[in-house]
Amino acid sequence: MKQVDLKNEYSFIINNEEKKFDVTSVYCIGYSGSDVKKVQEHIDELAELGIPKPPEIPMLYPVRVTSLNQKGNMEILGTMTSGEAEIVLIFGDTEEEIYVSVGSDHTDRGLESVDINKSKQICDKPLAQEAWPLSKLEDNWNELKLASKVLINGSWEPYQEQSVTAILPLEKVLDYLKNKKLDLKNSVVFAGTVPLLNGFKYGDGYEVTLLDPRKDQSITCSYTVKNLEI
């Protein structure tokens, strides 16, 4: 039987034009907070809930390419999954061609206590349909903000809101990826999130936003969640 080479093509609106990427790999960077002490405190808190400590900080998790979801809805299994706003780096045909967007590292929190990487594989990774060239953000990167909301009982509740300075500086993220000796061409990297306002919440939908206050622009990804569990 002849093997079919399937493309994993995703589209983004960049500078008001559609650009398609044949994505070959996807990664999530965990524990990428800029305050190492707070990161360690968070790891210790999670350990008390039975979530294993990572072997290194930050920690790189490869995830399936087919997990990327731009549809605005996703299916899950169980009641203990949740999303969170993430800076997303999109690499083009060269590692110097980088775009920035926002997505959600939706994760099965119950499975997280068994195996963190498996908990990331089982859920889709919702991703916005718009992106900005990194070259247009480098002069005001530290002014960017991440925010999210969660839909609970029909109402949207604030879930996250903080400057991206809570995440490792961009140059350190790029150096970290380079040191991993990855082929980043045509890859997507969920590069970090900001703290939750009041712990995990399991809702019927999530809205994640990347804001650029200086230029008064934003990118938003919103999606609903359908639990398949009977």
- Main sheet strand line-up: 4-3-15-8-9-12
Oligomer: single chain
The number of E-state strands comes to 17
Helical content band: 10-25%
Alpha plus pi helix count:
4
Main sheet, how many strands, which sense, barrel? 6 strands, mixed
* Poorly predicted residue ranges: none
Average of the residue pLDDT scores: 91
Shape: globular
Order of helices and strands: EEEHEEEEEEEHHEEEEHEEE
Instruction: Report the span from N to C terminus.
Output: 37 Å
Strand content is 35-45%
Secondary structure class reads mainly beta
Radius of gyration: 17 Å
Helices and strands in order:
Blueprint: E1 9-14, E2 17-22, E3 25-30, H1 36-48, E4 59-63, E5 68-69, E6 73-76, E7 81-82, E8 85-91, E9 98-104, E10 107-108, H2 109-112, H3 116-121, E11 125-126, E12 132-133, E13 145-152, E14 155-163, H4 170-179, E15 187-192, E16 205-212, E17 217-227
Model description:
It comes from Halalkalibacter alkalisediminis. This is DUF2848 family protein. The protein is mainly beta and 230 residues long. Helix content is 14%, strand content 40%. The protein contains four helices and 17 strands. The chain has helices spanning 36-48, 109-112, 116-121, 170-179, and strands at residues 9-14, 17-22, 25-30, 59-63, 68-69, 73-76, 81-82, 85-91, 98-104, 107-108, 125-126, 132-133, 145-152, 155-163, 187-192, 205-212, 217-227. The protein has a six-stranded mixed beta sheet. Strands 6-17-16-13-14 form a five-stranded mixed beta sheet, with no helix packed on it. Strands 1-2 form a two-stranded antiparallel sheet. A hairpin with a 4-residue loop joins strand 16 and strand 17. The chain is globular, with a radius of gyration of 17 Å. The chain starts with 8 loop residues before the first strand and ends with a strand. The mean pLDDT is 91.
